[in-house]
Design brief:
Layout (H helix, E strand, L loop, with lengths): L8 H8 L5 H11 L3 H20 L7 H10 L28 H4 L9 E4 L2 E6 L5 E7 L8 E3 L3 E7 L1 E4 L2 E4 L3 E4 L8 E2 L5 E7 L3 E3 L2 H6 L6
Antiparallel strand pairs: 1-2, 2-3, 3-10, 4-11, 5-8, 5-10, 6-7, 6-9
Helix pairs in contact: 1-3
This protein binds zinc ion.
């Protein structure tokens, strides 16, 4: 699958180092299952990390080493062993991404979606660090405008939406900075299903979303 929007290199590096909160980590894993470019970057980062740790203890990895690793992610990949990352052909049935299936099965239609607002339903997934949810948005629905108190990673699984950052289709990831405010709108031709991870509460502008926030774990 060719994707137009990818996680930041620093997010991929944290994922490769195992230091992303598990909710965010699951979104990256689901993107890697469909994006060869990011898959190769993570495999490359892991190789570099291993080499670096063979040379010096983890505590002494300095900012300059981290910058160097980020720069190395853009170098050509050599001898990357990707066997463990590829989705086996036998698992390609079902519309739920393979990394999520052990938790929730194979089909979106089998999930018990909970209505949040007209045109918006969610399904909350277990996560020990951060919040992880599937969101189903009816065609043309405007999400409430919101900011963030932490990171937000959104992976489009079906359909598409647009916001201040551009248009996001199946496979694309929005890696939103804590200081950004945005208002996603589902495209009008079909509904949109997204996998969304956050590691801090959202900041809504409107009163109604703020009042509903505790009920929907936003
Ligand atoms: Zn990617």
């Amino acid at each position: 699958m060719s994707c137009n929007h990818h996680p930041d290199d620093s997010t991929l590096l944290s994922y490769g180092a195992g230091s992303l909160p598990d909710a965010l980590s699951m979104v990256v894993a689901c993107h890697l299952a469909v994006c060869d470019d990011c898959h190769d970057k993570v495999a490359h980062a892991e190789q570099i990390g291993l080499r670096l740790m063979e040379q010096e203890p983890v505590e002494s990895i300095s900012k300059s080493s981290r910058d160097w690793m980020l720069a190395m992610l853009d170098e050509p990949v050599e001898e990357v062993c990707s066997e463990t990352w590829k989705t086996p052909e036998a698992d390609l049935d079902g519309d739920i991404p393979e990394p999520l299936r052990p938790m929730i099965g194979q089909w979106f239609s089998d999930l018990h979606w909970r209505t949040m607002a007209p045109g918006m339903k969610q399904f909350i997934l277990p996560a020990s660090q951060g919040k992880l949810r599937l969101l189903k948005i009816a065609p043309g629905t405007f999400m409430p405008s919101h900011g963030h108190s932490g990171s937000e990673l959104t992976l489009v699984l079906k359909g598409s939406y647009s916001d201040e950052l551009g248009r996001f289709s199946a496979g694309d990831v929005a890696d939103v900075d804590p200081d950004m405010t945005h208002q996603p709108v589902a495209d009008t031709h079909e509904g949109c299903i997204c996998l969304i991870a956050t590691d801090g509460p959202l900041r809504f502008k409107g009163l109604v979303p703020r009042l509903l926030q505790p009920f929907f774990q936003l």
